Amino acid sequence: MPVRTLAVDWGDRRIGLAVSDELGLLASPAGVITRRAGKRPPIAEVLRHADTLGVEAIVFGLPIDGDGNETARSLEVREVAARLAARTTRPVRLVDERFTTAAALRTVREQGGSTRGRKGDVDALAAAILLDQVLNAERGGVTLGESVTPLPAEANN
Fold it and tell me: What tens digit of pLDDT does each residue of 47-61 get?
């Protein structure tokens, strides 16, 4: 049974968001959260968006390198996803996000647009591309990615 899902494209400066429809057919950009340098990851803000959008599951893009290896960013995303999972009852998954930003940039350019001043739009579109991949796989009976194990409460500070 399809569930409304939030996709998160975690970045240094911006976090792109996308949401599926109730039928699990369409993925749409759902905005961006701006990160502030030196501040804690905005996990509470991601959860507020999840509540507002009425999602039942959360998917984080896992930024591994072109060869499928972990990166410093993927380790950060794993930790943030585990902290978020400890603060919600929703299932949280990590899904390979390789090439989603490149696909988002290509999409904007193919539509005759410029990416100048639209980095937030690109991040949200990258999250929508990731979510579309997840939804397509689920329609084919495949669950992409890996489940996130919540961090213990004492490690979640």
Answer: 999 999 999 999 999
